[in-house]
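To assess whether ligand presence alters the predicted conformation, the chain was also submitted together with magnesium ion. Input:
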Amino acid sequence: MDRVLLLKFGELFLKGRNRREFLKLLKSNIIKKLHNLKFKLVETQGRLIVSDYEESQEDEIIERLQKVFGLIAVMPAIEFDTTLENIKTYVDTLDFSGVKTFKVDVKRADKTFSMMSMELERYLGGVVLEKNLNLKVDLYNPEMVVNVEIRVNQKTYIYNKLYPCAGGLPLGSAGKGLLLLSGGIDSPVAGYLMAKRGLTLEAVHFHSYPYTSVQAKEKVIELANQISEYCDEIKLHIISFTEIQEQIHKNCDADYMITIMRRIMMRIAERLCNKNGLGAIVTGESLGQVASQTMQSMNVTNSVVSLPVFRPVIAYDKEEIMDVAKKIKTYETSILPYEDCCTVFLPKNPVIKPTISRAEHNEQFLDIEKLVEVAIANEEIMVIKNF
Ligand code: ATP
Ligand code: MG
């Protein structure tokens, strides 16, 4: 008898001919995630199984697997050679303390096994009841389900616990993108959500030191560190925005300050994408949340780039974004009170419905090409890996 982890994966089944490719990616992501632990990963009959690990590391392995996109659940199981005697023996060893109702669920892929599924369910139910006199069978809402899987490789698996995983698609299956990462609540969530759809992330952060503090930058590094738990590793581009902001403040209309800032951020982001082989820009904007997040604003900022801009929280309420932030544990860091570069020189009345022509008019007073070039030439790069 061996202890193993059965892995349940999700949408891969829907993907037809891409399935093999996705499974390959999923396996390599799992191997990366568990890289410094002892284990074996095998694929049998459409199932992934982790085996040969130290039992003392089982919790750690499960916890890491819960952060691998593409997995739906992990089930710790016992694996043994298929015989009725063995199945009975191992069902007999299960611990039902504290449980009042149960059912047995048999999946019999091995059609040569002597008993039919229902027959075996009834038989094993009887075995359990004989030993646990206070238990009752409840087929519809049992507290515990004893799953018995009889596979064609002469192995049977028994499990009764299921740990939910992150779901989504394997990281990397959708290509690579650049997350605009501020220190706020929304952008780490946006990054997480896109990674969940298979997008590998790099991130860019704009700071306005000395108007913004060193702590503000460290907070962003910590956020990148936290999302990297789901994203393998994150290359973080840190860009000084100070000169750009001073120039905008000096030369542009106050109500267009944020609009112009956003357009320059997008231009820099696109340049970084092209330089690093990234195919999309990701932001944490949510429709109507603030003046700069109207559809007119987004149109005016989108118009300076030709790459797709993904805004996965566009339709989320703040509460919904906060729920995800808490789940992925970025929330506590995000609410630390350090200023973002966007709040420096903030105008009293930013324009709510900017137009491209007025933005372009304002930009005539800036040497945008030069500002973008210098900002990128002075970028600081960190590779962040959280395991
Ligand atoms: P967040 O909570 O993500 O900071 P927000 O609600 O504060 O978002 P804004 O400040 O308007 O909204 O920023 C909108 C988006 O622009 C952010 O979600 C982020 O993607 C990007 N952004 C803003 N400031 C920065 C920055 N300093 N560096 C990188 N990206 C930024
Ligand atoms: Mg912000």
